[in-house]
């Protein structure tokens, strides 16, 4: 194999591919990046058996071939190369020579044929969406996936297409996050659960440019995200995702409208007192047109007061401040609504108008 490309193009491909390199594996080949040329394309491929990435790099292909190179060494070399053209040559023994100006590296590789290829995903069922929109949707929901694998299905996010809308849903047993976007075109109903790790890594690749699109393809076992210069393939989590829709009732006893940033800052200050003890909540006292936020711990106490618009009954309720803050930081609206039924039932955080996002948060029982 012999190719010629620019260092910056190569580095972009390496950085993308690194996101699917296995760090803990009994298969050393998966700690490599596969360099492969096919049909006038130069590809960098990585695969940890849960997520796989194929990144395309602009290059002049002189001789086709493939080689698997240790990802850590290869990436460190590429990072340190001058900003110039890079020549990569692989001989019959898989010795890989990297030349950039006066820098020359000789790195032993492994046969490309030994690398575990990415799963083949048929491109039948698909949707197209702006990369920036999907990036925001992941950011606004990923924080509430389950970290511990007590229920493995909850370590992923449900991607659901229904009634010409795409929703991403996550839950961890204490809260639920939903982000929804409407489509103009017709799409078949689909529901798959994608590992949180996959969505975390793909969000780092996605562009924030409004013009950049991607296609998503679904099968029974895999999902494929196709970008302009790369593809990401992931296995799906098996099992039935918990029913969530009925938990978001439209009924409430108390509804408040409040400035999101002011509420967030007040909770952050109250959390300074509560943070040393996970069992110490922040307490909401919703009065006529005022929200009192308090916290009392061995470190001291804090009292915050916010102006609100209230419908319904006054209520006292308490929360883990982190769960509220995670939701509030993911929202960009100036004002939000919070609806309550009683001190023991979940609170729902939602838009003043619209259904783009909804968050459900369980309260903490108040003593006495």
Automatic annotation (TrEMBL):
GO terms for biological process: DNA strand elongation involved in DNA replication. InterPro entries: DNA_clamp_sf (IPR046938), DNA_polIII_beta (IPR001001), DNA_polIII_beta_C (IPR022635), DNA_polIII_beta_cen (IPR022637), DNA_polIII_beta_N (IPR022634). GO terms for molecular function: 3'-5' exonuclease activity; DNA binding; DNA-directed DNA polymerase activity. It comes from the Bacteria. One of its GO terms (cellular component) is cytoplasm. Its main location: cytoplasm. Residues 248-365 form the DNA polymerase III beta sliding clamp C-terminal domain. Residues 129-243 form the DNA polymerase III beta sliding clamp central domain. Keywords: Cytoplasm, DNA replication, DNA-binding, DNA-directed DNA polymerase, Nucleotidyltransferase, Transferase. It holds the Pfam family DNA_pol3_beta_3. It is found in: Cytoplasm. Residues 1-118 form the DNA polymerase III beta sliding clamp N-terminal domain. Belongs to the beta sliding clamp family. Forms a ring-shaped head-to-tail homodimer around DNA. Confers DNA tethering and processivity to DNA polymerases and other proteins. Acts as a clamp, forming a ring around DNA (a reaction catalyzed by the clamp-loading complex) which diffuses in an ATP-independent manner freely and bidirectionally along dsDNA. Initially characterized for its ability to contact the catalytic subunit of DNA polymerase III (Pol III), a complex, multichain enzyme responsible for most of the replicative synthesis in bacteria; Pol III exhibits 3'-5' exonuclease proofreading activity. This is Beta sliding clamp. The gene is dnaN.
């Amino acid at each position: 194999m012999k190719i010629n490309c620019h260092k910056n193009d190569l580095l972009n491909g390496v950085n993308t591919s690194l996101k699917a390199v296995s760090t803990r594996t009994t298969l050393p080949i998966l700690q490599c990046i596969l360099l492969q040329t096919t049909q006038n394309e130069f590809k960098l491929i990585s695969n940890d058996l849960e997520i796989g990435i194929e990144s395309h790099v602009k290059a002049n292909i002189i001789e086709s071939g493939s080689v698997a190179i240790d990802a850590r060494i290869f990436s460190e070399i590429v990072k340190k190369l001058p900003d110039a053209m890079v020549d990569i040559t692989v001989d019959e023994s898989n010795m890989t020579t990297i030349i950039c100006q006066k820098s020359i590296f000789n790195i032993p590789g492994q046969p490309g044929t030994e690398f575990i290829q990415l799963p083949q995903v048929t491109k039948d069922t698909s949707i197209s969406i702006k990369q920036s929109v999907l990036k925001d949707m992941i950011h606004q929901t990923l924080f509430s996936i389950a970290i511990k694998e007590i229920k493995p299905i909850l370590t992923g996010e449900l991607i659901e297409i229904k009634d010409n809308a795409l929703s991403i849903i996550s839950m961890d047993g204490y809260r639920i996050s939903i982000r929804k976007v409407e489509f103009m075109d017709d799409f078949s109903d689909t529901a798959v659960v994608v590992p949180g790790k996959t969505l975390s890594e793909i969000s780092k690749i996605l562009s924030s440019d409004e013009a950049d699109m991607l296609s998503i393809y679904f099968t029974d076992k895999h999902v494929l995200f196709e970008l302009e210069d790369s593809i990401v393939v992931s296995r799906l989590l098996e099992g039935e995702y918990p029913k969530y829709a009925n938990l978001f009732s439209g009924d409430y006893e108390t509804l408040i409208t409040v400035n999101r940033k002011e509420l967030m800052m007040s909770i952050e200050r109250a959390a300074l007192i509560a943070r040393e003890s996970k069992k110490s909540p922040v307490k909401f006292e919703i009065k006529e047109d005022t929200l009192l936020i308090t916290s009392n711990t061995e470190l001291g106490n804090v009292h915050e007061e916010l102006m609100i618009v209230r419908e319904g009954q006054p209520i006292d309720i308490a929360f883990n401040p982190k769960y509220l803050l995670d939701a509030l930081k993911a929202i960009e609206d100036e004002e939000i609504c919070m609806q309550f039924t009683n001190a023991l039932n979940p609170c729902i955080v939602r838009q003043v108008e619209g259904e783009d996002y909804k968050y459900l948060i369980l309260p903490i029982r108040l003593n006495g």
